[in-house]
Amino acid sequence: MHKFHGVIRKNVSRIAVVILLTLVSACGDKPTRPSPAPSPQSSQAPQPQQTFLWQVKSPQNTVYLLGSIHLLKKSDYPLAKQINDAYEDAEKLVFEVDMGELESSKTQSLVLEKATAQDGKTLKDRLTPETYQLAKTTASEIGLPIEAFSGFKPWFFSLTLITLKLQRLEFNPEHGVDQYFFKKATKDGKETLALETIEDQFNLFDSFSQGDQEQYIRQTIDELDTLETSFQEMVSAWKSGDDQTLKNLLLKSFKDYPELEDQIFGARNRKWMTTIEPLLQKEDDYLIVVGAGHLVGKDSVLELLQAKGHTLKRL
Known about the structure:
Layout: H1 2-10, H2 12-21, E1 53-57, E2 62-68, H3 81-89, E3 92-95, H4 105-115, H5 123-126, H6 129-141, H7 154-168, H8 177-188, E4 191-194, H9 198-206, H10 210-223, H11 227-240, H12 243-251, H13 258-279, E5 286-291, H14 301-307, E6 312-314
Parallel strand pairs: 2-5, 3-4, 3-5
Antiparallel strand pairs: 1-2, 1-6
Helix pairs in contact: 2-4, 2-7, 4-9, 6-10, 7-10, 11-12
């Protein structure tokens, strides 16, 4: 059994990235159409009519808002020229969290602390017999006995399934838009800022009710077989600037859980505004990189900025 705990611990940093960067991008609705095959990598990216990039100007500066896909394939690069131009124009970058801390030992310890049950209840105790049996069968199929998760909370089991599946499909947080620009900014000596702390995001996930966590397990298991197609469809929508399709893929699964949707997106967006809006009074130009789900739907960052009287230009 120790070797299976080792597999889990080995993937803690990757699981942390998935937890911290996105809840729904890995588990949306089932795909509605076949996804196109990835295009061969070339030296120049095809230029879409529009991207998931917006520009807000003030008398003092320019702020760019880029909706990110947090896990991509190497073949998804290079990015569109508009996006790279925005990076070059910005003196500073803003991410959801401190990207430099994502794979630190401190963060890994925090993952295990938040994911480990402190009340003595096992995973089996927290799930209905039907869901537990489903989880047991699925864990066995990926080569991990369910007993390896006995001391963990349901949300951690779900994220482990997603992480291992995405790794096998070659979707990697190392190729995510956030990581790409964080590494580039670090190399270029550009300052980076964060909208919230790493612990804020863990507390959000850990606050989900037992019922929500069980529902998430069932949804995750139900959609594992179609994960590659649905995820690639989302990436294709992002590349082409198809915000309606991306909105449907990201948010439709929350139609029966409006409070959960607000908890993950709306509430955080409203909190972020206390940091984002003052940036328009600074002298430096900024590139803000957040999950694409934060730029679509009710109380999106874009909607909140417009409500404050700011004019947005899509690039």
